[in-house]
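[#protein-structures] MJ: dropping PilW family protein here for a structure pass
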Amino acid sequence: MKTFRSQRGVSLIELLVSMVIGLVVVGAIVVNYTSTGATSARQTALGQMGEDAQLAFNLLARDLQMAGYSEPTKIDAAATTFTKIYSGRPMFACATPMVNPKVALSGSKEDGVTCTAAGPSVSTATHALVVNYQGTNANAVLNAANVPTNCLGSEAIAMTTVGPPVYNYRFVSNRYYVDTSGTTGRPELKCAAPGEDGQPLIENVEAMRISLGQADAANPRRPVRYVAPDQLVGGDWGTVVAVRICLLMRSSEKLLAAEDDNKYIDCSGAEVASADGRLRRAFYSTVALRNKTAF
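AK: finished. structure tokens for PilW family protein:
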């Protein structure tokens, strides 16, 4: 006949210890999962910010490379030299916001854009950029009627030279700036044109800063200095041969916890704390101007 040893159950202390160990393990898994999810969300946001900045740079660079473009034409059939159809400033920039981004042209040589007065926050104000050139079938997007268009997709302005000779052409004046007055409430890079309200191009662009690469008489083809738009030596926009752009991008959602490092470097080189929990990063690009206009 078999005998059985007496069996004893788990004591309360052993059960409590097991539960504590289980909770520690589960807690570690939850913390790791949460941390991994937060890190993944931040990496995704940074990737999106980089893609948006690159898209904005592509749009701006394409236009800037056309700045000042004008088809050469002879004054008359016997002439041996050529003159430019458009001889106005190739580009213009403001160290403060534009007074009116959609202001009409003030003549064949002027885009009419003026800058707001410098205020106490001028050092951190977002800049504005204007790009002017003659639009042709080769350098502009065409509409269904094969007419060159501006950044809004509208027909470029029909212009006529004073002459002689009289020459009909299309003029593009694209005005880029950052604005938060849209329906989404997000800061957006916008583009306006003479007589046309600005339309958003890229969302979550919080600021745009411009530095002008200026040439001089001894070095007419390369920049000898980079200056802010309000510090252009001599005010001669025909001496600008390069433009350096900084775009301050932000994440669309709040991703930073209270214990996270919320510091970032803005476009002026200052260390700033993010006050709303969004990621921010400054991106830079430099564009060489292909067409040097003297006037």
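MJ: nice. The two ends are 118 Å apart (CA to CA).
AK: one more thing. The first strand starts at residue 72 and ends at 74.
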